[in-house]
Amino acid sequence: MVQDASPRGIFVPLVTPFTTDGRIAVDALEGLAHGVLEAGADGLVALGSTGEAAALDTEEKAAVIDVCARVCRERHASLLIGAGSNDTRSSALALAELKRWPEATGALVAVPYFTRPSEAGVLAHFTRLAATSPVPLVIYHIPYRTAQPLGAATLRSLATLSGVSGVKYATGGVDQPVLDLLGDLPPQFSVLAGDDLFLSPMLALGAAGGILASAHLATGRFTELATAWRTGDVTRARLLGHALARLSAAAFAEPNPTVIKGVLYAQGRIPTPDVRLPLLPARPASVEAALSVLMHLAVPEVPTAERR
Ligand SMILES: O=C(O)C1=N[C@H](C(=O)O)C[C@H](O)C1
Questions:
Q1: How confident is the model over 241-268, as pLDDT tens digits?
Q2: Is the peptide bond before 257 cis (omega within 30 degrees of 0)?
Q3: Annotated catalytic residue, options 61, 99, 113, 140
Q4: Could you tell me the CATH number of the domain that includes residue 204?
Q5: What is the ipTM of this complex?
Q6: pTM value?
């Protein structure tokens, strides 16, 4: 089994395209997977929230992972697989299943939602999962979806657990706990930006990359942004960061992944823009607005002498 020490770079959490009769459009999924990796993405996420994992049955989930695993194997790319729930015992069983895919470099596991355990309970949950998971865990911290805040001390305890390789950080901004973590990163641990809009500031502060639905679009620009911050090309990074933030804002004008599916459909990359209930398709105006931002995504070259 491939096991990254810690995930780095730009990961695209693939949408799940559907056919006109509501089945998974496997060929389109495979095309998307190849396309974003070809365009420079470092890895894929199968079964993220962007992939509408909550609306897929067990067989469909396996089909999605099969496609992503095959493409990642062929292209030597990293593969994170979304797994787990708000119950520790069934999350451990779901993680154990990932043995079936030796291509998996990690599992993306959300902080237990809805139950609202104490922070100590969250730590106990991940301690148990990390002890038995066949792959390293990337903790998905998204309190506006889970209703479970985590303070700096708990985050640090989670980051130092053996078997935890990173956090997808999506708290809706750059806050004190993530500054604390990035200011003194535990070894073999990555912070990945999970809010598309805050990718650039997070990279500037030392995030190792991001898991970003909007990187389906202009994928190469997202990887360019990560490279620019990593290599200290600050002027270029700022320009790219602002341009891509405009794209992300347009892509998230309605619940994810509805606008992105609308854009991918308009680009002819998926056979329908369909999403499963309770999601509703994005309004045409939102899709057109995102297409327009994408079309005008001009990032001027800055002469070397003017770079600061
Ligand atoms: O599926 C994911 O992983 C992502 N989900 C977030 C969300 O839907 O809130 C957005 C992020 O870009 C990636």
A1: 999 999 999 999 999 999 999 999 999 9
A2: yes
A3: 140
A4: 3.20.20.70
A5: 0.95
A6: 0.95
